[in-house]
Amino acid sequence: MIYDIERRGMHAADRIIAVSGLTKNIIVNRYGIPSEKVEVVYNGVERNGGRNYNYETSAIKKDEKIVLFLGRITMQKGPEYFLGAARKVLQVMPNVKFVMAGSGDMMHRSIELAAQLGIGHKVLFTGFLRGEDVDKVYRMADLYVMPSVSEPFGIAPLEALNNDIPVIISRQSGVSEVLKHVLKVDFWDINEMANKMVAVLKYPPLQTALRQHGNYEVRKLRWEESAKKCLQVYEQAVMTYQPG
Range of 118's domain? Predict the structure, then answer.
C-alpha cells in the first residue's frame, strides 16, 4: 500500500527531489520514474560549537574510549552489526565503552544480543535523546559509527563531523557519496568495521586527521546551500509547467 501511494505521488509530480544518488536510483529503477525528472539535493547541517563535555557528570570512566551509535535502533540502521564489531574491538581493547543512543523496535533485541555476546557491561543504551542531550553525547564520543544496511542519506554523520568526531559509515548510505574524509565499510563486514574502530581509537594521528579534514569538509554541507538548490528545482518546475 505504501509503495502504491509513493508511486502514484511520484508519477503525478512534475519534479522529484532525492536526498542522494542512491535514492534517485531507487526512484528510477523501482518506481519507473524517468531519470531526468529526479534532482539530487543533499542534506546539510548547521554549524555549532566544539567539544566541551564534562566526564564528571557521566557514568563512563575518564580513561575509557567511547564509540557512539546514534539513531533509530531498527533493522535499517544495522545495530546487530555494530554490536558484532564491538565484541571484536573489546577482545583487543578492553577500555572501550559503546553507547547506543536512540530507540526503536530492535532496542530490546539489541540489549539481549549485547548480553548474549558477553559485552552487556560495555554497552550503554541511553534511549531516545533530544536537544542538549544529543549535543552532549556527540561531544563525549571519540568515534561515531553508522553501520546502516540501507540509508537514503544519513544526517547523523554530518552532525558528528560538526562536533569534531571521526566517523565510520557504511558504503550502503547516501551520505557516503559526499563524504570523503571518513572511513567506509560494508555494513556486513564486522571484521573490517572492528579493525577500523581499533585503528581510529589506537592511533591519535589518524583520529586527528579524520577530525580536521572531516570538519573542513562538512562546512560545505549547509542547509542554506541545500535550500538554494531546492529553490532552483521549484523554479524549473514552474518554468516548464504545462497545465493539463
Answer: 55-218
